[in-house]
């Protein structure tokens, strides 16, 4: 069967890129779990495992001049955006070589050069930020789109409604990527929202919106391309409801009493990496040996990132008040 017969509108190079990015995210986070157990990484750690297709697919639609806003579950977005594994791992370790100088940690990855504006720990906190970035770009005459990633838990916050309204009212070039993984910590969507069709909800604000299979990296990439095209060409904001699932606990520890093991198993059968490999091999976009080579390269990249972080420098005592503001006493 040809790639197109299988719904894969991409070439071999693109297929290798998508697989590599998803494997990088998966393996990076698996290593983080080990480092967390070894107490090398401390604090909160929210894993994206299971959701890799969303960030991988969406990020490919953006230019370097576009902006990205994410949540505390953002390791994958940072990696896919081009923030180096070294500087992310160093940030996890809390050393000055980290992308936020070691002051942010897992939840606050930041890289102004790549227009990666966090890493935001407050649920829905990134949405007004994205609206502000979109407005600033328009007012400054910059041809840029802002992609804002957030969980479905954000739609219950007032900021979601304010952001949708203003983005639509001012026709801002923002693509809202709602990662609907069905749960906000232990709260299932249907227990907190009267309207669970999130694309419909966004549409009430006159925002172009539709739902996407968030486990299918090719569908995510196609949806993001279309959404970014609309936003870039003056069509106003777009809302994508990317239906996905996290395979792991909300944070590192969570008894997971809110969902059954069978439900998790059912979703694992739709593992975005394995599904993509299956289809791409069938379409002869991937060849024997590709997967193994990618795994080897990724393992080497992560080993290197961990060694870099291990050799990192703790912030010197003299820097403790750096960037800390205080009012001058007259
Ligand atoms: C304003 C606010 N309220 C509560 C919390 C605590 N909290 C952290 S994560 C989370 C769940 C968010 O779920 P969702 O938006 O679906 O994202 P997911 O974790 O599923 O990716 C909550 C309630 C918070 N960080 N910010
Ligand atoms: Mg969620």
From TrEMBL:
Its cofactor is thiamine diphosphate. Pfam families: E1_dh. Signal peptide: none annotated. It is an enzyme of class 1 (oxidoreductase). It catalyses: N(6)-[(R)-lipoyl]-L-lysyl-[protein] + pyruvate + H(+) = N(6)-[(R)-S(8)-acetyldihydrolipoyl]-L-lysyl-[protein] + CO2. Heterodimer of an alpha and a beta chain. The pyruvate dehydrogenase complex catalyzes the overall conversion of pyruvate to acetyl-CoA and CO(2). This is Pyruvate dehydrogenase E1 component subunit alpha. It comes from Actinotalea lenta. The lineage of its organism: Bacteria, Bacillati, Actinomycetota, Actinomycetes, Micrococcales. The gene is pdhA.
């Amino acid at each position: 069967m040809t790639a197109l017969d299988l719904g894969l509108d991409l070439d071999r190079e693109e297929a290798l890129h998508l697989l590599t990015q998803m494997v990088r995210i998966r393996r990076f986070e698996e290593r983080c779990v080990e480092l967390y157990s070894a107490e090398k990484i401390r604090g909160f750690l929210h894993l994206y495992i299971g959701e890799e297709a969303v960030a991988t697919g969406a990020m490919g639609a953006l230019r370097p001049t576009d902006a990205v806003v994410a949540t505390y579950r953002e390791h994958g977005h940072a990696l896919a955006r081009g923030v180096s594994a070294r500087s992310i791992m160093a940030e996890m370790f809390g050393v000055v070589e980290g992308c936020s100088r070691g002051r942010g940690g897992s939840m606050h990855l930041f890289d102004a050069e790549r227009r990666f504006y966090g890493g935001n720990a407050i649920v829905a906190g990134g949405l007004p930020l994205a609206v502000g970035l979109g407005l600033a770009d328009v007012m400054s005459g910059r041809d840029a789109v802002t992609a804002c990633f957030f969980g479905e838990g954000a739609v219950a916050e007032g900021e979601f409604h304010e952001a949708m309204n203003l983005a639509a009212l001012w026709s801002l070039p923002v693509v809202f990527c709602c990662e609907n993984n069905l749960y906000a910590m232990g709260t299932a969507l249907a227990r907190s929202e009267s309207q669970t069709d999130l694309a419909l909800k966004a549409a009430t604000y006159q925002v172009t919106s539709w739902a996407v299979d968030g486990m299918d990296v090719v569908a995510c990439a196609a949806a993001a391309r279309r959404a970014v095209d609309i936003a870039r060409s003056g069509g106003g904001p777009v809302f994508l409801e990317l239906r996905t699932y996290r395979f792991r606990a909300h944070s590192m520890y969570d008894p997971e009493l809110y969902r059954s093991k069978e439900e998790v198993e059912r979703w694992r059968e739709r593992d975005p990496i394995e599904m993509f490999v299956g289809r791409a091999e069938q379409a002869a976009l991937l060849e024997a040996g590709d997967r193994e080579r990618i795994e080897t390269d990724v393992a080497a990249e992560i080993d290197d990132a961990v060694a870099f972080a291990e050799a990192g420098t703790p912030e010197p005592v003299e820097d403790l008040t750096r960037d800390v503001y205080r009012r001058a006493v007259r």
